[in-house]
Write a structure and sequence with these properties.
mainly alpha, coiled coil, three-stranded antiparallel β-sheet, UV radiation resistance-associated gene protein isoform X1
Length: 361
């Protein structure tokens, strides 16, 4: 039986193509006694080869699994890198937001401090306003009573009496008197009838007498008819008289607490008067001007003397001085005698303030 199996194996071995090829390439004669040993060796080699193939297959599977794990690990690393970049970007955004939040907090603290200061100021102002309101209510209550109104009238009378006394001192300092004599002076003979301050008719000459201020005549004829033959002393006397008038008007306005529309720059016989009005009327295209522009307009000075000056500007300066006197006359409820009667209006102003009716008004 064993011999039969060995024969079958030998036949199988002999009929195997690989063995046939190997036999053809290199024939090896095996003795029958060594055949069994050789067969066992081949069988062990076959088993080892099979085990090696199985190990190779197992290693391939493990290597494939490792490659797959490695690929997944790389993908995860890429994802982690992207997540890290996004995290860094978010950290930067959060840092910027925290900085802005810090600045906003500091600004809020400053605003809170300012607001608290303003609130304290408002509280103090509210307290002061409340006190002032109580005082006002008390004053109104006192004024509604008969004695309170009488007290107010007495205070007003004292104030007017004080003003009357101070202005009487101005009258003594610069007396305006009528001088009757053969040589008769007259006020400003002519002035341009068309003026941006109004239209006025030509004044009539004074026939009964000539007014003087501190003994000086105010001759206005040189202001309109200046020539080479004009008396220089007469021009100087007129400038001095205008300086007296300007000083007197300035004192009266300060005593009456009336801001002059045309302020006077005192300088004796070299005095000036300021005009804050624009030099030209605004056109239709200038109607959108801001009111602040008119406030910032620089004043234009006009001389109250003729020496070295334009006669038109000097005459206009006298006109503006007379407008100041008319303003004071309107304040004390007096009547103006016209735009060209400087000394007459000044005398009327002094007379109105020194009258008994002024105290009782």
């Amino acid at each position: 039986m064993e011999n039969q199996e060995q024969q079958d194996r030998s036949k199988t071995l002999i009929t195997d193509p690989k063995q046939i090829d190997a036999a053809e390439g290199k024939a090896k004669v095996i003795e029958w006694e060594d055949f069994e040993h050789e067969l066992a060796r081949l069988w062990s080699l076959t088993s080892a080869l099979k085990e090696a193939n199985e190990k190779k297959q197992s290693l391939q599977e493990k290597l494939q699994s490792f490659i797959q794990v490695k690929t997944e690990s790389l993908n995860q690393l890429n994802e982690l890198e992207e997540m890290r970049e996004r995290l860094e970007a978010r950290k930067l955004v959060i840092g910027n937001m925290s900085m802005r939040c810090k600045l906003a907090t500091e600004d809020a603290k400053k605003r809170e401090e300012m607001l608290s200061t303003e609130v304290r100021s408002l509280l103090v102002a509210g307290t002061s306003l409340s006190v002032a309101r109580k005082r006002l209510q008390e004053s109104n209550r006192l004024l509604t009573e008969e004695r309170g109104y009488i007290k107010l009238q007495n205070v007003q009378r004292k104030l007017r009496a004080r003003q009357q006394y101070m202005i009487s001192q101005v009258s003594l300092l610069y007396p305006v008197k009528i001088l009757v004599g053969p040589a008769q002076e007259q006020e400003l003979e002519s002035y341009p009838s068309s003026s941006r301050l109004g239209n006025y008719s030509v004044s009539k000459p004074i026939n009964q007498g000539s007014l003087t201020i501190l003994g000086l005549h105010l001759t206005m004829l040189p202001f309109t008819k200046m020539s080479f033959f004009t008396d220089k002393k007469e021009v100087q006397r007129s400038a001095t008289a205008l300086g007296y008038v300007a000083h007197g008007v300035s004192l009266i306005a300060s005593y009456l607490q009336v801001p002059l529309r045309y302020p006077v720059h005192l300088g004796g016989s070299r005095s000036y008067i300021n005009d804050y009005a624009p030099s030209a009327e605004p056109t239709s295209s200038d109607l959108s001007w801001n009111t602040a522009l008119s406030v910032n307009v620089k004043p234009v000075e006009f001389p109250l003397f003729l020496e070295g000056q334009d006669t038109t500007k000097a005459a206009y300066a006298v006109f503006l001085l007379n407008k100041d006197i008319e303003q004071l006359l309107n304040f004390v409820s007096g009547k103006s005698l016209g735009p060209r009667h400087v000394l007459e209006n000044l005398k009327e102003l002094l007379r109105t303030v020194q009258s008994s009716e002024y105290i009782d008004t």
